[in-house]
Structures are given as C-alpha cells and as structure tokens.
Amino acid sequence: MRLQYPTNIRIIRTPCTGRLEVEYFMKAFENGADGVLVAGCEEGSCHFIEGNFMAKRRVNYTRRILSEAGFEMERLRMINIGAADARPFVEHIKNMIETIRNLGPNPLHEADASSSVLDAMIEQETQP
Amino acid sequence: MIVAERKTIPELVDILEGHKKILVLGCGTCVTVCLAGGEREVSIISSALRIASRAKNLSFEIEELTIERQCDNVFIEEAAKAVERNDVVLSLGCGAGVQAIAERYLEKPVYAGLNTAFIGILEERGIWAEKCAACGACVLDQYGGICPITRCAKHMLNGPCGGSREDRCEVRPDRPCGWQLIYQRLKGIGQLDRLKRIVPPKNWAPSLGGGCRVIVREDHRI
C-alpha cells in the first residue's frame, strides 16, 4: 500500500487504550505535546472487552478538565480504528494535524522541553 | 466511607489566585476510595492547575503530596516539611481533613479542594450513594438495616408516603423507594411485624441541632 502519513507525529504503543490514564494526557500537554490522538480498536472489538470504552470515558473526562483549565480540548481526540485500516488511519492523522495546525503550538510549550517526561517516554519507547 | 467530589478548576483557581507556592495535599483514606482526593487526583488536579496557571499567567508553583490520613495527627506530621515549604495548602481531604490540617498549621492558609458530600458506599462502578446521615441516634435495627432517614426522601418513619411509582421514589425517580426496600427486606428476614409498631417522632437532639458534636470516652483519656 505504501501510504504516507505526516512525519511530525510520534507513535506511542500501549497494550490497550484501556491502559491509558487521565494523568498521562495531562502530563503530555503539560510537557508540551501539541496534540494527543488516541487510536483505540473499533467499538465492540476490544480484545480486553471494554478497554476502548474505558479510554473513551477517560478522554472525555480529560477534555472536560482541560477545558476547565482554559486549554483547548480539541488537542485531545479519540478515534476508533481497526489495526488493518491503513487508509482511515492516514486520514485521521492528517485531519488531526490539520486541527493542531489551525490551533497553533501548545501554549504551554517550554523552550526546555528536552527533559520532559513525554520525551523520556518516547526515548524509552524508541530504543532498539 | 466519606464521599466527596472535586471542585471545578475555575473554582480552585479563584480560591488560589494571588498565592504562589501551593501544596496540593491528598488523603489516602476515604477520598482515595471515592476517587476524589487520592494520589491520582492530586496529580490530575495539580496538572490542571499548572496548565491553568500558565494559560492565565498566575505563576503557581505546585507541589504534590498525599498522606495516609489527613484527619489524624500522626499522619499529618508527615506533611510538616512540605507545608513549611509552601505558602498555602489546597487540601483534597474531606471537611474533617481540611480542618485538621488548618488546626495543626496555624500560620498557613488551608483551602478545601473538594466538596464533601455524604457518608455512603460505592453502589456500582462510578456511582456512590448516600447511606448514612450521621444523625447520632441510629434506627437501622428497626428497619431491617435500611435507613429511612437517608433512603427515603421524606425521612418517613412509619411507612411509605404513598407517592412512589412502581418501586421508584416520587422525589427522585432515579432512586428506589426506601420504604419499598424496607418492606422487602423485613419480609425477607421474617420481621414484617415490626411495621405494626408506631414509631414516635425521632429525637433529633443528637444530630446537628446542638452545635458541634463531641464524644468523650473517659476510659481512653489520659
């Protein structure tokens, strides 16, 4: 298929979106992430029965807190997508990038983001 | 357990505005179990406050700490250094916890980050319901272990009001009628005859009417 998607995203693997906690999203934004796209399995096809529904509720709760804190909640989005759905995956990513581009950079982003928790997580994730 | 829920972030910002060094202090007991003020909520609320602070240029410096129990002097001691380092404390304990901290650290402003709601239990995942009003004169023995004070919207002591629809309360249709529950329970344990007794008006003196309630146990005093 050789589909291309924007290179300015980083993929963080998780065993299941049900593993994600509200704190993770909060820390990601606090540490300068411009946007977080949670890609869970399609509703009804979670290997762990309801992990993606748990993630959906947590994403919604986090969006509410972010909004209360005066932060654009559009920077956090959840989609449901099958593991083999390459084309929709690319479309969703392009769409998210477009949303973030319109919003601009994360207003909380600090110059010294190199030591952020998020970068440490990514570094750990991408180590061979 | 004591059940509480968090205040909104704008409410907290309003309370904390003007302060710089803030200790967000969680409690590891009741409010941890009801997911309102434990270690995890301390982290989430602190993150939200830091985000709000940067968004609104408030220059909050937030430290996070959760102690085992805020309503107990032994555990409060563990927070002493952190309290000293900061200008104010935002307590995520229940009302008792907040006041215990305030009484212990006289020179620090202590603010409540939660609204303490009631004494209750987890009914199902994510739903807590009131079970006890701490009225000070328990009548549960007469009603099969179901409290007519908290479970009946009208606190009826001598039978149902007659307004329930099916088994639903007429005041709160999302809740079961307390008296329906009492009847079923007494029937189940073979004590329906208890309902024939006329219960006199409840003595509310041990409740909130007489000011701050205090229990003195001479056998435990030094």
What brief labels describe this structure?
heterodimer; A: 128 residues; mainly alpha; two-stranded parallel sheet; 4 helices; 43% helix; globular; B: 222 residues; alpha/beta; Rossmann fold; 2 domains; 4-stranded parallel β-sheet; 3-stranded antiparallel β-sheet; 7 strands; elongated
How does this structure look, described?
The complex is a heterodimer of chains A (128) and B (222). Chain A has 128 residues and is mostly helical. Chain A has one domain (17-106). Chain A has helices at residues 22-30, 51-68, 86-103, 117-126, and strands spanning 36-40, 76-80. A two-stranded parallel ribbon of chain A has the order 1-2. The longest helix of chain A is centred in the middle third of the chain and has 18 residues, at 51-68. Chain B is of the alpha/beta class. Helices cover 29% and strands 19% of the residues of chain B. Chain B contains eight helices and seven strands. In chain B, the strands form two sheets. Chain B has a four-stranded parallel sheet, with helices on both faces. In chain B, strands 1-6-7 form a three-stranded antiparallel sheet. In chain B, β6 and β7 (127-132) form a beta hairpin. In chain B, α1 crosses α3 (39-56). Chain A binds chain B through residues 21-23, 26-27, 29-30, 65-66, 68-71, 107-108, and chain B through 8-10, 40, 43-44, 47-52, 54-56.
